Amino acid sequence: MSHALRSGAAIFFDVLTDLGVEYLFGHTGGAVIPLHVELNRRMRRRDPAPKFILCRQEGGAGHAAEGYARTSGRVGVAIATSGPGATNLATPIADAYKDSIPTLFITGQVPSAAIGTDAFQEVDTVGFTRPISKHNYLVKDVRDLEWVLREAFALATRGRPGPVVVDICKDVQLAETSGQHPPRIRHREPIAFDPVKADAILAALAAAERPVVKAGGGIIHANAAAALRAFAERFAVPVTTTFNALGALPFELPHNLGMPGMHGTIPANYALRGADLILSLGGRFDDRVAVKGFATGKRIAHVDIDPSEIDKTIATDLHLVAELGAFFEHALTTGQAADHADWLAQIAQWREQMPKPYGLSEYIKPQAVVEIISELTSGDATLVTGVGQHQMWSAQYYRFRRPRQWVSSGGLGTMGFGLPAAIGAWFADPVHPLVLIDGDGSFQMNIQELGTLVANRIPLKIFVLNNSFLGMVRQWEDMMDEGHHYETCLARDASCDPDCMDLDQTCRRQIPNLTGLKYVYPRLKTQRIKHPKDLREGVAQALAEPGPVLVDVWVDKAENVIPMVRPGHRLDQMIES
Hints:
Elements: E1 6-7, H1 8-18, E2 23-26, H2 33-45, E3 51-54, H3 58-72, E4 76-80, H4 84-87, H5 90-99, E5 103-109, H6 125-129, E6 135-139, H7 145-157, E7 163-169, H8 170-174, E8 176-177, H9 195-207, E9 211-215, H10 218-221, H11 225-234, E10 239-241, E11 256-258, H12 266-274, E12 277-281, E13 299-304, E14 318-321, H13 324-333, H14 341-350, H15 366-376, E15 382-385, H16 389-397, E16 406-407, H17 418-428, E17 434-439, H18 440-444, H19 450-455, E18 461-466, H20 471-480, E19 525-529, H21 535-544, E20 549-554
Parallel strand pairs: 2-3, 2-4, 4-5, 5-7, 6-7, 9-10, 9-12, 10-11, 12-13, 13-14, 15-16, 15-17, 17-18, 18-20, 19-20
Antiparallel strand pairs: 1-8
Helix pairs in contact: 1-2, 1-7, 3-5, 3-17, 11-13, 15-16, 15-21
């Protein structure tokens, strides 16, 4: 780095360029104008700098940064102005926090002298992001900017990854300083790997009659998918891959049980129900998986990089705080192994219901849409979803083959995540086919990002499973809340009977008409599939298009996501039909 006089904006781009940041997903505004001025100057000079991707709303920019990070494994960076720009990032920050996504969120702030005066577009960004970020900073002195950026970037990936927020006052961006300013000395002693605890876990695994591994999203973050497969084969143990770990094992692997929990696969939930030992690797005991009675009559072992997760919700019999890479290396080099032939034979029988068969009707079954997409992409697409029923069908019926191909909001369950996250995913990986499966409710929450899609000519294939409902809520209403649909019917308008609770398959008001979006967004092709006989040909036609395509698929409005373990119920109370 040069020791010449530099502005804060120049330091900002010098540091990000030095750190290898390729893209900034963002939106502009008054409190970040100096940063954009500096970026434009560098672009005109052809100087190295990250490429700025103009999203249509700050929340979309944040989710795009998440999609980039989830797909690439690198830090995704989003930038927004102060006030509403920063508050619009709250949801993607919280989303990244819940799923431990390495992200850096940069926000502008009013000049340092104006802080606390209720200035125009002033908001306490550090205050409101404190509980939803791994760490955050307010930079009020240009001499602190470089070390803060470097430390924030490192923190996003160090240990358990997560979002870090850097709030930069506008006067800091304009101020000048010379030289480099060293960071504060902050040091936390790493927890030493404990081979005795590791061996105790391996011994318990070998001694168990019906062990199951619950592999979490930490497998993906640690780039440990290959090691997990070797571990499962060496110790002859079946593996459930949680929502955030989908793709860690290929669908066809005999040890793979698929996703466990509320909408988990039959083999995964049967195995967890019948296990005598559950070993959790790189995952928390989320309430959608660790349902009522989850640990009853079982030994629980837990390996995680985050000590705060140990015994947080489920008491463990054995645990180890360690990086997964270190644990797998130890397990695979000690010569230990196990044999659970009878248990794996039972698993093989249960796997015949993975995924669960579904019935056919005169209406398109959403499961069929996902299966055909999976088949025609050879299970190799980067698959992005919104949140809702379509998300669960995608998790159940797409035949994943590799890590980082599944991009979906897990812990926070953020509707509207899909479209902007898919944009970020494409910038991370423009090689694999890119598919977004969304619902008509979730898709509308960030529909404005179609502008970002077509402006950047991203060849995304969008399949909207359109049932004219907020489907997951409608399912809960039908199953547990007397079938009240007033707030969940997306076809409702002022002409409807206010007391209508019917699930009418023929009521298909299009609000909006998704096929009409081709007239609004240049270069976006649209098509509609209404009948099962047209489904395969229609999906194939869309996937063959070179540019972005939106497919409006009219699916069975009454279809529910099954299996289902209702809230407050046990695995042995799973609804299977």
